[in-house]
Amino acid sequence: MHLRRPKPLILSPLEEVVSGLCNETARAELWDQLAETRHLKEPQINAFEQITSDLPKGVSGPFNGLPITVKDQIAVAGWPRWFGLEKTTKTKDGTSAPFVKTLQDMGCVVQGKTALPPHALDLQTFNARRGPTENPHRMGFTVGGSSGGGAAAVASGMSLLEIGADLAGSLRLPASWCGVSSLVPTEGRFDTNGMLPKDHLLDHFGRMGPVARSCNELAFFWKTLTGETHPTTPNQNARLLIWSSIDQAPMEQHVCDLWSWLGKTLIENSFLVEWDCMSALFHADIRKLFGEIMGYETGAMLPFFIRWLLRRDTDAIARSPQILKHVYQGYRRDHRQYAKNLKRLEALRQNMLQLLETCDALILPVSGIAAFPHTPPIKERGGVRTYDKEFQTLAGPLPYLDALTYFTVPTGVLGWPIVTLPFAVDHNGVPMGFQLVGKSNEEAKLLSIACALEQAMPFASTGDEQ
Fold first, then answer.
1. pLDDT tens string 110-145
2. Full-prediction pTM beyond 0.90?
3. What span, in angstroms and rounded, lies between the C-alpha atoms of 253 and 456?
4. Contact, 446 vs 453, CB < 8 A?
5. Helix pair 443-456, 215-226: axis angle to 10 deg
6. Between the CA of residue 72 and those of 122, 242, 350, 354, what are the distances in Å?
7. N or C, which terminus of the chain has less Cβ within 10 Å?
8. pLDDT value of residue 62
9. What are phi and psi of 395, to 5 degrees?
């Protein structure tokens, strides 16, 4: 069950890498090392949309010229955005997304744009132009989506830090299945401009965040970015509420077995753990609320006729009654209903705070489904894909989209910070991760707990590279 990551050529922790970038020669050497890694691994993994060989000169700031990668839906000045589409453009963004611009001003240098499905609308990463991104742990298996290219690049050592985006699990699922760590910051903590085409903006759920090789590296990133730190949390003082199911779990059998093993292992490592079904978090109304709000906000980017057609796609709706059905309902763009939903969302978030009254963090699966071989849709229209795939779980068969977002949508709706870290490998040798959810704007504390878990648990140790 122990996690073993693919061995990258650069093994130094991120903090050591940054501190070593003291001059142009050191930066050029690191750039060359990353280029060598890409030369060896990119032909098989297919993680990048665009790469540059131009190393900027005169970089300054606390990140010291650190090369990073950015998901190719996020604006970077001087780069085009292809959004995973078959037809590319030469039009370059004039300005970077504010979050990326902050990192650039602090000394980060964008070395590449990473792969995603068309318009970031799938939980697998492939498109007609460039084919699938391969899982570094097992060729032929999905990396998840939509930030799959970035997670694969980090997992294989082709990138030291990725900036991706998450709406319904787009950072968390790829991080989980690639055996790396991600941070979804508190909703509203950072400006989300530059994440969508034509300056469109989502007011809820969509967030940009980093992917790194470990929680320790995420903590270094966060400290450097914000200046926020939190004392390391001793194992015995970290109070953790871990999800359990009172009924048949919406998980595949072997995933359920691994989840039970995780809880026992946490206790053996002196963490204060309490099992809880968190039933209020999984009420059907939460998925309805998520879908209608997301449909209303994303619907602003679509012409009326396209929204009208999608709402009449009864086949797609039937194949995702928990998510897509409600998204398409939101496409009606009913302003009054949207206002009511926002009030319900705020009430929900206030009510859910009781989950964190007696604990420091929540632990939930990223997915009850293990990574699977690349699977094509039965239909695709404008980047919107329909799958007939069902997963056999202990709660019965679950359709593709509903199964893969079962655990990510409820935690994403809360708007709280979420760290994903790996805990085991499945029966196919592909990693699995869990979500660590903390209180709003307490990222530093959450990362401290994540680092304590990472240090204490043998399966999450950064020394497990083979």
1. 999 999 999 999 999 999 999 999 999 999 999 999
2. yes
3. 26
4. no
5. 160
6. 14, 34, 35, 38
7. C
8. 97
9. -95, 5
User: How far apart (Å, rounded) are the C-alpha atoms in residues 300 and 281?
Assistant: 28
> At residue 101, what is the residue type?
K
Alpha helix segments (H runs only) across 319-407 = 324-330, 335-352, 400-404
* Distance in angstroms (rounded) separating the CA atoms of residues 380 and 371: 22
Length of the chain in terms of residues written: 466
List the beta strands (DSSP E) in 59-156.
67-71, 109-114, 126-127, 131-132
Cα dihedral: 58, 61, 66, 69 (round 10): -100
CA distance 226 to 16: 19
Token look-up 């939101």 returns 330
DSSP codes joined into one string, 162-178: EEEEESSSTTHHHHHHH
Place of tokens 């009511």: 340
Which residue shows structure tokens 């030369």? 39
Tell me which residue of 177, 220, 222, 216 sits closest to 367, measured CA to CA: 177
